[in-house]
Design brief:
The complex is a heterodimer.
Chain A lengths: L1 H16 L9 H16 L3 H21 L1 H17 L1 H36 L10 E8 L8 E4 L12 E4 L2 E9 L4 E5 L6 E6 L4 E6 L7 E3 L12 E4 L11 E5 L5 E3 L8 E5 L9
Antiparallel strand pairs in A: 1-2, 1-12, 2-5, 3-4, 3-12, 4-5, 6-7, 6-9, 7-8, 9-10, 10-11
Chain B lengths: L2 H10 L1 H11 L17 H12 L6 H15 L5 H19 L5 H26 L6 H13 L1 H16 L5
Helix pairs in contact in B: 2-3, 2-4, 3-5, 3-6, 3-8, 4-5, 5-6, 6-8
Classes of the chains: A alpha+beta, B mainly alpha.
Chain lengths: ~280, ~170
């Protein structure tokens, strides 16, 4: 019996402490290092934060380069398909040009009218244009646990945690991590995402809850609320983070929301440089 | 250095290269569009197989670094993936030291233990020391598919080993 216990302890120690020609570090020492790194990161020491920010910037760019082949193959496939559809597309484009020509005739008149109306209203051009940063999606690795993307703009551009991110004025998510040259955006369908929303004629208030699936759901609704399909859901802005009235998606009878933006098809997004009135995680 | 020597070295570093590439690239094993619940932790399978079969090809320092890179890309607290990978290494080392000969069935069974320990550590740390909320259903699916597909990758890696590296196990 004692022999078997000795045997166990020898094998156990050997597995934990063994080093060799290629195994330069023992597993035990690396576990200790990993634990130190983990707790330094979790408890947010300033040095680790700065180091992490730098590592993030470097790794995200390397990830973007390393993922180039995976982006290239669908592109080639698309190119071939596009080539075969060229004739049909050409005819469609001709029709579109004809329509645009017709529209162009009205453009000058409308532009002049617009200028005159602006004078009447005594308004400036939309100020928020300068408060917007266009960013490219560097990485959209689809983790089973976290639904987030990484964009190529960071604190250098004035991005801070909590800022809303949109695409074509539709809400995409919010910034949860900023580095000097990159940021992480938490998508609406992530399990950690909770957004106050409003919808329908009665301005019903609810919370849009991500479930880690493709479609987030509406929760905290009035009792016995009956869902009607196809009603547009807007951000209510009650959290002081998202602008009120930003469109998000359309309701389904099941209580899920069909997002206007497919979280898996993002290439460019817009970060609205609105300072959140509350601190977010 | 002869041409065959360079080729041998290249083939031998294949598993490590794959581990780094999976950690750093956008390639994910979460085929959400095809099958919503499907996700797989291929890195763990790679580490376990090669630690058991050819530990000299999979340095623990590299595994630690791949874990750190994975944390950065996935947005997890630094060091958490490294810890779970090192637990896999530890169980792999233990099984290798303890057994004379391994089969696909014995490796599959011991992989269950390694995977359970690694995931237990990973999700307990994430749950207790981080703000990130994770779905337990997703963890279950991920663990199930990783375990379920282990024999498939075992056969593939075994084929790779026999074809390009040599059939001699550690």
């Amino acid at each position: 019996m004692s022999v078997s216990r000795d045997d166990f302890s020898i094998v156990f120690r050997s597995a934990l402490l063994q080093r060799g020609a290629t195994q330069k570090f023992s597993i035990f020492s690396l576990i200790i290092v990993a634990l130190i790194v983990f707790f330094l990161d979790v408890y947010g020491f300033a040095i680790v934060k700065t180091a992490r920010s730098f590592i993030n910037d470097v790794v995200y760019r390397v990830t973007y380069l390393a993922s180039a082949p995976t982006r290239l193959f669908p592109g080639i496939n698309k190119g071939i398909t596009g080539h075969f559809n060229l004739k049909k597309e050409n005819e469609e484009l001709r029709q579109v040009i004809e329509r645009y020509k017709a529209l162009d005739l009205n453009l000058e008149y409308i532009s002049n009218e617009n200028k005159n109306l602006k004078k009447v209203l005594d308004t400036e051009d939309v100020q928020s244009v300068s408060n917007v940063v266009l960013a490219k999606v560097l990485v959209d690795r689809n983790s089973p646990f976290l639904k987030s993307i990484i964009i190529n703009k960071g604190s250098k551009e004035g991005i801070i945690k909590g800022m809303p991110v949109t695409q074509n004025k539709y809400l995409v998510g919010r910034i949860v991590e900023t580095n000097y040259l990159s940021s992480r955006v938490l998508l609406l369908n992530d399990l950690n995402s909770r957004i106050p929303v409003t919808f329908d004629e009665k301005s019903t208030q609810a919370i849009l809850t991500g479930g880690g699936t493709r479609k987030p759901t509406l929760s905290y609704l009035p009792e016995n609320y009956q869902f009607v399909e196809g009603i547009t859901v807007f951000a209510s802005g009650k959290d002081g983070i998202f602008s009120a009235g930003t469109p998000i998606g359309k309701t389904r009878e099941s209580g899920e929301v069909d997002l206007f933006i497919d979280p898996n098809q993002l290439s460019f997004v817009t970060v609205n440089l609105i300072k959140p009135s509350k601190e977010v995680f | 250095m002869s041409k065959s020597n360079i080729l041998n070295k290249l083939f031998a570093s294949g598993p490590l290269f794959l581990l780094y590439y999976l950690s750093i690239s956008e390639i994910d094993s979460n085929l959400e569009k095809l099958f919503e619940i499907f996700s797989l932790n291929l890195q763990i399978i790679i580490i376990y197989f090669w630690i058991i079969k050819r530990p000299n090809l999979m340095g623990t320092g590299h595994i630690f670094l791949a874990g750190l890179i994975n944390d950065v890309v996935m947005g997890f607290p630094l060091g958490i993936s490294s810890l779970s990978y090192l637990v896999i290494c530890f169980v792999g080392n233990y099984v290798r030291n303890k057994s004379v000969n391994t089969t696909i069935a014995s490796d599959w069974f011991t992989f269950l233990i390694a995977l359970s320990l690694a995931n237990l550590l990973f999700f307990s740390l994430l749950n207790n020391f981080s703000d990130i909320t994770i779905s337990y259903a997703k963890i279950g699916y991920n663990t199930f598919f990783t375990l379920f597909l282990f024999p498939v990758f075992w056969l593939l890696f075994n084929l790779y080993q026999m074809s390009f590296i040599g059939s001699q196990d550690a």
